## 1
Amino acid sequence: MSKQVKIKSALWYKTEIDGTFDLVSNFKADDSSKRDGYIWIMADFGGNGSEKRTRVSINAKDFTILGAGGKSAPAATVDKQISDKEIEKEISDRFDVLELLTHGVIERQIKAMIVSGAAGIGKTYTIDRMLMDAENAGKVTKFSMMTGSCTAVGLYLQLWAHQNEGNVLVLDDIDSIFDDQEALNLLKGALDTGRARNISWLGASKFLKDEGADQTFEFNGTVIFITNVNFDERIAKGGKLAVHYEALISRCMYLDLGIHSMREVLIRIKQVIKSTDMMRKLGVNEKQTSEMMTWMDSNLNNLRKVDLRTMIKLSQAVKASPKNWDRIAKAALCVRG
C-alpha cells in the first residue's frame, strides 16, 4: 500500500488545495519555492478524469505523512533539505547523461530526443558543440539548428530536408509548435520510435512542388527538441496540451536536466564558471568574477533574469566601469522597486 499525505494547505499554481492524496515523493525544502518547499502527489486538479503526478508548494507544518491504515508515519519520511553540493552533483550527472544521449544520436542509435531545462544554462551549447564536431568528422552527414518560431509547413519542409539517416535537426526553443495542431502531429510523427516514420502534408501541393518536396515521405533522420518547458509540471497541471506532452515523451528520450528554480540555475552558473574558461574569455579576472557572483547572490530576488547571459552582461558592466559596475548592474539588470 502506498503512503498517503494529509494536506492542510498547499498551493498548486495559484490554487489553494487540501485533502488526502497518494504520496509520490517526500518533502523537499526549496528556498525558491513559494512556501517552505514542495512534495509530489497523485491528483486530478486539471479535471481530466485521471490522476497525474503533481507538484504542490507547501509549508512543512501543513501536512502529515500517513502510513498503512492512515496512521501518521515517522518523521524520518520527510527528507532533509538538499544541499547545494547535492544539487550540483545531480546537475553534473544530468549533463553527463546529455552528452551520452547526444553521442547516441551521433552513433545513430537514438532517433528522437527532448531536452528540458531553464534557459541560459548551456544545454544548447553542449548539443551544438558535439554535433558540429561530429559533422566535421563525417559522423553526422547533415546538421541544422532552428530557433525562433516555425509554422507547420515550415517544419514539414525542414523534416523533408533532414529525412535521411545521419541527418540531425535541432529545434531550439520553438515552443510555438505546441499551439499548432498540424505542427504537433508532424513532430509526433518525426519523434516516433516505430520502424517507419511516415510524414504527410496533403495540402499546398503546388507550394511543396515549388520547394521540391513530396507530399509524403519516410523520415529516417533524427530530431532533437530543446525546450524551457518542464513537461512533467505541464502534464501534472492538465489542460488541452497535456495529452500532447505525454505523446511526445512516449515517443522519444526525454531528459529533464532538473534545472528550473532560481537556486538550481544559480548553482549551474557557478558550476560552469568553475569548470570552464568562460570568464577569462569574457575578459574578467578571478577577483572580479568572485565579486560578480557575490553581487548576483545578493540581488537574486530582484534580477529580471538569472542565467549564464546574466554573467555576460555583468562582465560587460565590469569592463565598462570597473569601479562603478555594480551601479550599472543594479540599474540595468534589476527590477525597480
## 2
Amino acid sequence: MGKVSILIVLFWFQSNAGRTVWDGVYTSDQAKRGQTAFAEKCASCHGTALQGTEGSAIEVDAPPLVGPSFLEKWREDDIGDLFKYIQDGMPREAATTVPDNVKLDILAFLLQSNDFPAGAAELNPQAAGKIMLTGKDGPKPLPTMTPVRAVGCLTQVSPTVWTLTRAFEPARTHIPGEITADEVTTSQTQPLGTLTFKLPNLDFAVPGLKPAEYKDRKVLVKGVIYRQPNNERINVTAMAPLAPACGP
C-alpha cells in the first residue's frame, strides 16, 4: 500500500485516541503469574520458549506465539479478539479448565514475551477490546484477503450495487461472521473517513440481511478485504447498523 493509505491508518488511530500494546497495558506481576500458568497449561503445545511446534515431530501442530509470524497474524486487531480466541479455544479441547483471569495473565505474558512494555495497571477484559496490537512502527494497512471490520456509510449506487463510503482503513478481525454488542458500542463513536469500498453481491451475501433497511446509515461491516487498484472491496459476512443516518 502507498504512503497515503499509511497516513490514513495513522490518522484513524490518532483521531480515536486509542491505546496500543505500546502504552503499557499489563503489569510485570501479571505477566509473571502468566508465565507460571503458561508453563503449566500451554508450553506442552506451544513450546517452553513460545516458539511453537509447527512442522515438528510432536502430534499437536501449534503456531509460535512470539516473533514476526505472531505479529502478522494479530496486528491491527484489538487484543480483545486475541483474548476471546484464548478464552474460547485454549487449551485445545480443554478451554473450560482454565479460568478467565488466568488466561488474562497468560495474555499479559504473551505481550511481555513480544517485548511490549509493562505498565501500572493490570489488563482486564473491558480494556482489552480497546487496545490495538501494532508493530513498533505503528499501524499499517492490512493485506488482501484479510478478514476485517470497517465503519462507514452504506450507499446504494444502483439497484444491485452497494458501497461502503466515508470509511476509514479497516481493522483486522478474527471473528468475521459475528458482530458483538461491545463492537457495536465501540464503533458508534468512530468517526467517518474518506475511503470507499465496493460490497459485491451484498443482497445475497448474508442470509437474512436486507441492505435496503440500512441504506444511507452508518454501519459496521465485517468481511474479507480484496485490494486491487481502483477496485478495493469487502466481501461482507456480517453487518450491523450504528446510527439512523450517516451524519454530516
## 3
Amino acid sequence: MSESVSFVEELSAVKVERETALTVGVFDGVHRGHLHVLETLKRRASEGGLASGVITLHPHPALVLNPSTPIVYLTTIEERVELLRASGVDFVVPLTFTLDLARYSARDFVSLLVQRLRMRFLLIGPDFALGRGREGGPELLSQLASEMGFGLEKVGPFVERGQVISSSTVRAALQEGDLETVAELLGRPFSLHGPVVHGVERGKVMGFPTANIGVGSGMALPPFGVYVTRAHIGAATYDSVTNIGRRPTFDNGERTVEVYIMGFDGDLYGAEVRIDVLKRLRGEVRFASVEELAEHIRKDVEDARAYLASHR
C-alpha cells in the first residue's frame, strides 16, 4: 500500500534510541482517566527496559470522517502535547489524522509502528480500535501482536464513585458550568488560552479594563456568564474575573472571552494569556444601562476576591 507523506513522515521524524512501549489515542483534555493509562504505560515500559511513547491524533478522527460531528476540544494540540510530556512519558508524537490515514488497514498501521518506532509493546484503552473502519480491535491486535512480536495489554476505564472518567464526562460537566467537577475530573483547573486581541475597550471606560483573549472557535467553553479565574502571564499569576459571552448589554455580537486582571497595569496586546476557570459567579445578563452593568461588575470583582481569598 502506498504511504501518505504526512503521517509516515511524522512517524519517521521521531528518532528512538531503543525499543518502545506505545499507546495511541486522541487524549483530548489529558484528564485523570488518561493519566491512569499513562501510568500503566510507564510501568510496563520500565519493566521491559523500553522507552514510553504516546501518539496523539489530531484533528479528532470523528471530525475528519464526519465534519458535522459536534465535538469541541478541551485542549489545543499544543496544550495536549505539553500536558502529555509533563506526565513523564519519554516522548510524544502528534500525528495528523487524515482521510489517507483513515484508509490504512490495522495491519499496515501497526506495521508502521513496529518499523518506524520500534514498538515492542502496545497499551490500548477502553473501546480502542484502529485502522480502516475501526477493524483493529483487541482480537485482531492480539493476532498482529503474535505475528509481529510485540506485547499487547488492554487497560480498563478509570472509574471513581461509579463514574467513568472520560473526555465526554468532562465535556458534560463543563456544559453544566460545574467547574469544580471539571477540575476534579481533569486533576487541574479547566483553562483557556490564546493571544490578547483588540476589543472595543468598553471595560476601560467603566473602570475595569479587560483583555480580550482570542480563544479558537473549536474550543469547548462553559456556559455564558461571569467566572472567577486566575490569569497566567509569563511566569506571573494574577487574580481575575472573566466574562464569557456575547455582551448582550451592548451588541449581542460574537462570543468573547474578556478577562479583568486584578493588579495588572500594562499593554498585553499580542501576548499569550492562560486563564484557569474556577467557579461560575452568575449567568450572562442584559442590563438596562451601562451604569447598572458597571455596578454588577464591581460586585463580581468583590465576589471573586472573596472566593479566591478562601481558596489559596
## 4
Amino acid sequence: MIERGQPGSNAPSPLLRRTPLARGDGWTIHDCICTAGPNDRRFEERHDQVALALVTAGTFQYRTPAGEAVLYPGSYLLGNSNECFECGHTHSVGDRCIALHTSRELFEEVAASVAGSSRYTFQYPNLPARPELTALATSLCTVATRTGAPFAIDECVYTAVAAAIAALRSRVPSAGRLASADIRRLSAVLRYMDTHSANPLRLGQLANLAVMSKFHFLRTFRRMTGTTPYRYLLATRLRRAAAVIAHTREPISAIALNEGFNDLSSFNRYFRRMMKTTPIQYRSRFRQPFAVTKVQG
C-alpha cells in the first residue's frame, strides 16, 4: 500500500494519494489513501526504505518474501528495505494508512535498543491489532484526522512507533495461512464493524455475517486479528472517540455515547487503562505540540 506504480517502478499511482504529515532526518510520515479495487491489476513493487504502516480504514492483501497477510484497521504493514511486495483488494475497494518510511540505518539503530540486535529484519509481513499497540494506534489516528494547522510532530513519533514494532514483532507469532473463503468472510465482517462500530454488535450477528458458527468465528477472528471481536470493537471505538476529543470541544460524555460506549464511567475507565491518561488530559495534550503515547512494557 506504500507505493503503487508500474512494474519495477515506485512512481505513485493515480489510485494512491499521499499527504505529508511529518519529515525528519532519515524518516517521513504520510497519510495514504488508496482507491484500488478488485478489478485493478496487481504490480510487484519495492520498498526503498523500511516501511511501517498503520491501517486506519479498509482491508487488503499484502505479500512479501516474508509471507502473506490480510491488513485491516488497527494492524501494521511491515516492509524491509529493498524488499519487493504486492498489494491487492480482492474483496473490497480502497484503504487508508498512516505510513512511516525510514532509512535502514536509522531503524536498526532504534531496533538495537529494544530487540537486542542492530541487524534487524521483519520475519513476518504484518503485526496484528495487538492490545499493546492500541494507545499508539489511537494517537496516530488522531494525527491523521486533524484538519487545519499541522501538529509539531517530532522525532518521538517515529521513535515510539519503530521501537514498539521492533520489540513486539520479535515475540508475536504469525497468524498463519487462512482459507480463502475465511479471508473473504472476515474481511466483510471487519468492514462491517468499521462502518457500524458505534452500534451494538452481537457475537451471533457477526458470526452470521461471516456464515460461521460462533466457535469457528471466534477462533478464526482471533487467528487473523490477534484479538477478540469485543476487544477489536472497543479499540475501534476508542480511536474514533479520541480523535473527536482531541479536535473538538464537544462534551466527552456525548462523544462516548455517540461512539458506542454505554456510559461515561465505563468509557473513562477504558480510556485511562489504554491511554494511561484521562480524556480531559488527552484533549489538553493535543492542544500542544504532538507527543505520541508510548507502548508500555
